[in-house]
Design a protein that fits this description.
five-stranded mixed β-sheet, 5 helices
Amino acid sequence: MRVLGVDPGLTRCGVGVVEGVAGRPLTMLGVGVVRTSADADLGSRLVGIERGVEAWLDEHRPELVAVERVFSQHNVRTVMGTAQASAVAMLCAARRGIPVALHTPSEVKAAVTGSGRADKAQVGAMVTRLLRLDAPPKPADAADALALAICHIWRAPAVNRLQQAHAAARSPRSSGNVPVRKVPR
């Protein structure tokens, strides 16, 4: 599975591509940051993020895009910018028919480090170790994007099994409401 991780932000939008399957060594295919100027107007910044994400989609052709789920923060301006950048990444994927998965920061931290309260340095260190890199990706937004991709690759099999189980539980056969056919006598 090839996953593009996106750590959304208006000034620095982290992007990273990881390939692999759960239980096997993973490979980093690319990592970087889409940057926009804080001095530019919002529309220009969003177009810049769109162009950057589109370029990553063109170059790496991921099967899925994993985006950090926006959650409430104390600074409304920060959460709005993050949400807007997140929406741009989801839109770019949707245009191409690429599925999008959202993961909370604590899910990502727990998947990569074992603790949902890990700090940026711990996440960077584990991403470096898991992907067998010489040094942690800089800035932290880039490392976070790789962590999102890793989280999804590792969680996808379990999530798929849960979705299949829920679908099976909703089917008529599993609920005991099996249609009865009348047999002619």
